[in-house]
Amino acid sequence: MTRPQDRVASIRLRVGAGLALLAELGCIAWFASVGGEYQTQIQSFVMLSDKMAHALAFCVAGMTASLALRTSAATAAGLCAVAGGIEILQSFVPDRTASFADFAASVAGVAAGVALGAALWPILLGSVRRT
After folding, report:
1. Angle, alpha carbons 50-110-91 (nearest 5°)
2. Angle of helix 36-46 relative to helix 50-69, nearest 10 degrees?
3. Which residue has the higher pLDDT, 26 or 96?
4. Which terminal residue of the chain, N or C, has fewer Cβ atoms less than 10 Å from its own Cβ?
5. CA dihedral over 29, 35, 36, 41, signed as positive or negative
6. Cα–Cα distances in Å, from 21 out to 15, 51, 60?
């Protein structure tokens, strides 16, 4: 049987990860909606290639979604749909185009992030339980 403190720790971890996920998805949507020139400036500032930025953004989102939702397959499928939707929407943003390579980088990030979130769950749950 689950101890009450285990249940509370699980809820705290999931709520915190859910809030982080909402912030991350908001940032991803904002970055996807800015024009090409501004996007280039952001990429040069963070010193990441376009594909690495996609992979990193969706890796972090995949990890927090995995922690918040605890369902790896559904989480991965949902985030891959978000990545595809963003690529389609970018075709309507001035100076931006949809790119299958960007989508593939995002999907790779999702896969890595969901796996990382699943691996980190017991470690993070233990640290939340101790606080």
Report:
1. 45
2. 80
3. 26
4. N
5. negative
6. 10, 21, 8
Distance (Å, whole) CA 8 – CA 77: 28
And the tokens for 65? 């979604």
Q: Judge whether 128 and 5 are in contact, CB under 8 Å.
A: no
Residue type present at position 15: V
Q: What is the pLDDT of residues 49-87, one digit of tens each?
A: 888 989 999 999 999 999 998 888 888 999 999 999 999
pTM to 2 decimal places: 0.85
Q: In terms of C-beta density within 10 A (0-12 exposed, 13-18 middle, 19 or more buried), how is residue 114 classed?
A: buried
- Which tokens in the block code for residue 27? 């940032």
**What is the per-residue pLDDT for 102?**
93
- Please give the backbone phi and psi of residue 113, each rounded to the nearest 5 degrees, phi first: -65, -40
Which of 1-15, 16-30, 37-51, 114-128 tops mean pLDDT? Answer: 16-30
Smallest CA-to-CA distance from 65 within 96, 34, 100, 111 is with 111
